[in-house]
Amino acid sequence: LQALTLMNDAMFTEVAQALGTTLATRDDDNATRCRSLFRRVLNRWQDAEETNRMLEFVETQRSRFKTEQLLDAQAVAGGDGEEVIERATWTSLARVLFNLDEAITRN
Fold this sequence. Notes:
The protein is mainly alpha-helical. The protein is built from seven helices and no strands.
């Protein structure tokens, strides 16, 4: 229930969109972007399996946005303009990380 609440919270949506925009405009490769996002959200370095899962997610989401299998990329990215599919892809990944138990509760 808590993850559902956060997923629909305007503040978390806007923060995810801001991170998505930041990552979409970076010149880094996808792995570097994933590491940066993971570190910013969870405050630790991810292992190789986590990196691979994130990279797979990014490629799948990008493909699904391009073929319009998902919601309108403009809605996810928070507007239109250049790089909307990239912004939507990275915004989606940020939203996933925000909703991990590790991000919601820290021990």
